[in-house]
Amino acid sequence: MTAFPSLYDALALIAIGGLAGFINVLSAGGSMLTLPLLMFLGLPAQVANGTNRVSIVFQSLSAVGNFRRAGASQVGLSLRLAVPSVIGSLLGVWLALQVSDALFEAVLVTVMAASALMMLLPQPQLETRPLTRERLTPLVYLAMFAIGIYGGFIQVGVGVLFIVVLYRLLKIDLAQVNVFKVFIILIYTLPALALFLYHDQVRWSYGLLLAVGSMSGAWLAVRVNMGPRGALWVRWLTLAVIGAIIVRLVVG
């Protein structure tokens, strides 16, 4: 592995990063594309995992900034939701060190299948009132903590859980849910990236090229999300991602 990717590899990082950024902002699962790419280009698994966080941070920053400029910003409420997720993730990391890879996959398939069923349930009666902190009940905070545990434990598909749980518990439309999701994932990822940096598990040249593509994909996804059919895009793309994750795990 060289310190800097070749021109061909750089173009692949930007292109796949763009697709992953679009998928991650509208739904989840873009890391299923970027992590294998980084490993294919020669990065060890842990270094690929750390380097991928660079892209996630920048695409999340891009999405949060574009949502804010579009008038869809809920910083205060998003921070409240992010705190229990970050705390839960610390417990999840500890749990991940205690179990086998086989249990990882079993938990992931189970959670993704349950998420698909929840997405296919009839749409809840959505609230028309503005979302305020009074509607963030203890159950909502507990759910954010639980998702944080899952994210620290496995990480793959964690955005799906944020979408499903916030949609069902807060009863806001999926386009609004995505505004919260990208901000929470930004806060959630920063400590992880810092930890990988501390252990020298990040290759900036690869991560920044991936980030160039992912920020472009995030920019496009925000515009789709804010469009008149944004919620429909989120619903069906999320179901497609869940199906892809399950198939990938079952067929190996």
From TrEMBL:
<feature type="transmembrane region" description="Helical">
    <location>
        <begin position="102"/>
        <end position="121"/>
    </location>
</feature>
<feature type="transmembrane region" description="Helical">
    <location>
        <begin position="234"/>
        <end position="251"/>
    </location>
</feature>
<keyword id="KW-0472">Membrane</keyword>
<feature type="transmembrane region" description="Helical">
    <location>
        <begin position="141"/>
        <end position="167"/>
    </location>
</feature>
<keyword id="KW-0813">Transport</keyword>
<feature type="transmembrane region" description="Helical">
    <location>
        <begin position="179"/>
        <end position="198"/>
    </location>
</feature>
<comment type="similarity">
    <text>Belongs to the 4-toluene sulfonate uptake permease (TSUP) (TC 2.A.102) family.</text>
</comment>
<dbReference type="InterPro" id="IPR002781">
    <property type="entry name" value="TM_pro_TauE-like"/>
</dbReference>
<feature type="transmembrane region" description="Helical">
    <location>
        <begin position="7"/>
        <end position="29"/>
    </location>
</feature>
<keyword id="KW-0812">Transmembrane</keyword>
<feature type="transmembrane region" description="Helical">
    <location>
        <begin position="77"/>
        <end position="97"/>
    </location>
</feature>
<feature type="transmembrane region" description="Helical">
    <location>
        <begin position="204"/>
        <end position="222"/>
    </location>
</feature>
<dbReference type="GO" id="GO:0005886">
    <property type="term" value="C:plasma membrane"/>
</dbReference>
<protein>
    <recommendedName>
        <fullName>Probable membrane transporter protein</fullName>
    </recommendedName>
</protein>
<dbReference type="Pfam" id="PF01925">
    <property type="entry name" value="TauE"/>
</dbReference>
<dbReference type="InterPro" id="IPR052017">
    <property type="entry name" value="TSUP"/>
</dbReference>
<keyword id="KW-1003">Cell membrane</keyword>
<keyword id="KW-1133">Transmembrane helix</keyword>
